[in-house]
Amino acid sequence: MTEPTTVAGDCLCGAVRFEVTLPTMFCGHCHCTMCQRNHGAAFVTWFGVDRSQLSVSQGESELVRYDSSEHGTRSFCSRCGTSLFCENDEHPDRVDIPLANMNAPIDRTPQVHVHVDSKADWYAITDSLPQMGGKTGLEPK
Questions:
Q1: Where are the alpha helices (DSSP H) in the chain?
Q2: Is the pLDDT of residue 14 over 90?
Q3: Residue 101 lies in a domain
């Protein structure tokens, strides 16, 4: 039997280190304004895993949780401010992680653009990935 594949990740300063056991649930680009403001970018590429597949190996005491909405929290490093984890009451067993925080490739590349109705005006989506929007941000365009 093969051992499960794990991929390491960390924050900018290295105070918080974690491992994710594959497989992931999804990987996609989120264009919502909350992600734009949280990361200072046009969009954020997230992937999701079951909570049991995430292990913080160093710096758990450095994590700060912010209630970013009535149904979700975002965790970041208290030393460098790196956004690390997003949790949502609508999916209590899932943790979303920015792909850019990983130290090696995961098991998939981005598959979709979500919340495109609120994408940054100065950014043009030029790839052929499906685009989702509407009230939920997840409805086909």
A1: 33-39
A2: yes
A3: yes
Residue whose C-alpha is closest to residue 65's, from 92, 87, 38: 87
Domain residues for the domain of 80 are 6-31+42-111
- Rounded distance, CA 3 to CA 19, Å? 14
Question: Would the pLDDT of 2 be above 80?
Answer: no
Radius of gyration of the chain (CA): 15
Indicate whether 127 belongs to any domain.
no
Residue 117 lies in a domain: no
What's the total number of domains in the chain? Answer: 1
Q: Assess if residue 106 is contained within a domain.
A: yes
**CATH number where 63 lies:** 2.170.150.70
- The reported pTM is 0.94
Q: Write the pLDDT tens digit of every residue in 50-86.
A: 999 999 999 999 999 998 888 889 999 999 999 999 9
27: three-class secondary structure by DSSP: strand
82-105 pLDDT per residue, tens: 999 999 999 999 999 999 999 999
Q: What string of DSSP letters covers 82-135?
A: -EEEEEETTSTTEEEEEGGGBSS--S-----EE-GGG--TT----S-S-BEETT
What backbone phi and psi angles, to 5 degrees, belong to 107?
Answer: -85, 5
